[in-house]
Amino acid sequence: MNPPAEAGAPELTAWVAQVAALQGLELDDDLLAEVVAFVVVARDMAGALLDRDEP
Amino acid sequence: MSARSAEAAQRALAAARTLDPMINAFSAILDERAALDAGRCAAGSSLEGLTVSVKNLFDVQGEVTLAGSIINRDHPPAIRDAPLISRLNAAGAVLAGLNHMGEYAYDFTGENSHYGASRNPHDLERMSGGSSGGSAAAVAAGVVDLALGSDTNGSIRLPSALCGVFGLRPTAGRLTRTGVFPFCETLDQVGPFALDLKHLARAFDVLQASEPAPTPISAVDALGQGGKGLRVGRLRGYFDDLLDAEVLAATDAASRAADAQDVVVEDMAAARAAAFLITNAESGSLHLANLRTRLADFDPATRPRFVAGALTPADWYVRAQAFRRGFTRRMERLFGSFDVLLAPAAPTTAPRIGQKTMILAGREMAVRPNLGLLTQPVSLAGLPVLAAPLARPNGLPIGLQLIGPPGGEGACFRLAAVLAAKGVVGATTARLA
After folding, report:
1. What is the domain-level CATH number for residue B103?
2. Which entry of B131, B135, B283, B379 is annotated as an active-site residue?
3. Checking CA distances to B269, which of B38, B85, B167, B330 falls within 20 to 30 Å?
4. What confidence category does residue A9 fall into, taking pLDDT thresholds of 50, 70 and 90?
5. Is A38's CB within 8 Å of B308's CB?
């Protein structure tokens, strides 16, 4: 399940909270915000790979 | 019993007690073990008279393998040494201590909220680099002759560069990782540090001698082969784009001394992205059970990274691994034209401890994730890299990456020896006491 590609912060935060809960992780608001920031970085990193067609 | 080893052990233990309050490189100083090792050392052994310390993710019999965490304090002591330690011991090296590291190796800075930062012996207010920061600092301060560390995305090469010592990340899979606490299964490698290039070569030969085929090329022999016919490429493009001006000038000077030919490889930013995603996904998965039950016991600097890693979509991980396979083939093809590739190891000299941002090419960037931007793409391809400090007796250390083809550590040692003979690379013990 990929996070929303174009969504703004509220949707992305909701996605992180939902997937974290599925993983059994309880995040307070501060940690949730930090994790969202990392997921944004990871999403950008993944974006650099998505258009490639590696054999 | 070796008198040389006994004397070396005493010197290392005394230096550790004197200097560690300044550099915070040791999580344990092993007096009894050092005496035992010295007593077992046979005169004439290849590493006789040399001392070693190891990053505290290596198993050492009777010691808890902390891996920079407080969670692992609850683990039982290791029942045997990691095989690489046994190999060094069998060759005469004396184990003198365990080194601090960034928590679970997810670190480029040498900082650790549980145990404090390992300090750079060349400037105690500055970072040692991470995650093998304690190992590099112990060597740079002259406490030990050798150290062992691990390198997933740069954790040997960055501390080597910032602390001004030699370090080796061997070819992927070259050295066993048995008895080493993992970080990222498909990227982790382990290797040695040393102040003296000859010591590094001797240690690597000892470490690799027990590995299965292919028959190892002696690093010690490579040191004496000279530079005639050695084809050196200087990686440019991505490697110059975000570089401190002082590091760029020093790397340019080293490239000229190596008679290097410029080469630009596409996809380095994508390679870094793939390394980032693979590291996040694998390490998040590794620590998921503890993230569920002991979240508060993680270092605040690593906690959100591991949590974010545990949320990584499988699609991203699969794409990153697919990219990695193609990128590795493209990198390996370069060695049809070159024997060694040269690149800077760190984008800047050591930042100050606690420093959050740095300016690179006019851009303000976060220190913690970006110190490794030059090492991450290289290790994605599994290539051997010798980190070589530039000879700079009056400046903060700057390091090079000398990158070889798979199994080509010998070419890296060969170029390092050529540059050392020209006075371009070389390490100096930090003056502390």
Report:
1. 3.90.1300.10
2. B131
3. B167
4. confident
5. yes
Residue A22's domain comprises 9-48
Quick one: average pLDDT of B375-400? 95
Mean pLDDT within B41-58: 96
**B277 vs A1, B284, B305, B317, B339, CA distance in Å?**
15, 10, 11, 6, 30
ipTM of this predicted complex? 0.94
Q: pLDDT band for A48, please (50, 70, 90 cuts).
A: confident
Query: How many structural domains are present in chain A?
Result: 1
Cα→Cα distances A23→A32, B279, B286, B320, Å: 14, 18, 13, 22
pLDDT band at A52 (very low <50, low <70, confident <90, very high): low
Test the B interface: residue of A12, A34, A49 with most B CBs within 10 Å: A49
Q: Which of B155, B218, B283, B379 is catalytic?
A: B155
Q: Is residue B186 part of a domain?
A: yes
- Specify if B206 maps to a domain: yes
pTM: 0.97
Which of B305, B307, B326 is opposite residue A25, by nearest beta carbon? Answer: B307
Half-sphere exposure of B377 (CA within 13 A, CB side): 25
| Marked catalytic residue, from B2, B5, B53, B55 | B55
- Does A25 contact B303 at a Cβ distance shorter than 8 Å? no
